[in-house]
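Our consortium's second objective concerns turning raw sequence data into structural hypotheses that experimental partners can test. To show how far this objective has progressed, the report includes one record in full. It was chosen at random from the queue rather than selected for favorable results. The single chain below, 287 residues long, was entered without modification.
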Amino acid sequence: MDSSREQVAVPEITRDRIHTVDDDSFTADNCCIVTGGGSGIGRALSLAAAENGLTVVATDIDDDGLAETVAHGEELGIEAPIETVTADLTVDDDVERIVDEAASYGDVKYLANVAGMQHIDAIEDFPMGAYDRMHRVMLRAPLYLTKLCLPHFRETDDGRGCVGNMASVHGHYVTAEKVAYNVSKFGLRGLTQSIAAEGDGDVRSFSVSTGYVKTPLVANQIPDTAESRGISVDEVISDVMLGQARNDEMMEPVDVANLFVLGFSKLARHLNGGDLLFDGGMTLTYE
C-alpha cells in the first residue's frame, strides 16, 4: 500500500487508545444508543462507551457489522455489554423498536446519532431518491430518536440525559457535489441547538465536527470524488481531504469516539448546544 492510501486505511481500535472518564453516570444501569454501530465511528464509540462502563445498544442496518463490533469488544476484554439492534433508520417502526429494546436493557440516558451516508453528484444531477434516503438516515432519524428518547431521559433517577450528534466540517462550510451531506450536517447542528433550547439544562446536546476521518465512508467516496473532479485518487487524498488542514494526517475513529465520551461526561456539563470542532484548522485558517 502506498503512503497516500495508508492515510485512509481504517485502523484497528486498541483498548489503550480509548479514553476513560470517572463519571457516576457511566454505569451498566444506563444505556447509550449508538447508530451506525456496525463500522467506523459508530463502532469505535460503541467500544468506547462500553469501556467507560455503559450498556451500549449499537444499531445498524448491517447485521454482520454489528456482530463484528461485539466480537471486537470481546477481543479487547471490555466487560460492559454491547447489545445490538439490526434496524433501518428510514423505517419508523425500526426507529421505535431501537428505543424500546434499549429501554429493556436499562435506563436510556445517552443517544449518539452517528450513522451517515454519502453520494457524490452535482445538484443538477443529484438523484432525489438518494437525497431522500440520506435525509431520513442523517437528519430525520436523529430527530425522531431524540423525540422518543426524551421521555426516557426524564424518567431516569436524576431526570437527565444527553444527545450527541455527528456533524462535520460540512456543517460549517460546504464542498461541491455533496449537497445532501452538506444539508444534513447543517441540519444536525440546528437539531443540536434545538434540543438545548428545549432541554431546560437537564437534557444536554452537543455536536462533533471533524474533518476527514479514516472510515469506510471516507475511503469509499474517494473513487467517485476522483471521477467527478477529473483528478487522481492520490490527489483526492492530498488536495481535497488534507489540502486545507494544517494537520498532515486524518483523525481515527477512536479519536472521534473519545470526543463523544467527553461530551457525554460530567466534564462537559457546560457543553449544551455547542459544537466540538476538531478539523485540524480546515475551516478556520487559510493560506
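The partners drew two points from this record. The mean pLDDT is 91. Residues 91 and 176 are 29 Å apart (CA to CA). Both points have been shared with the crystallography group to help prioritize constructs.
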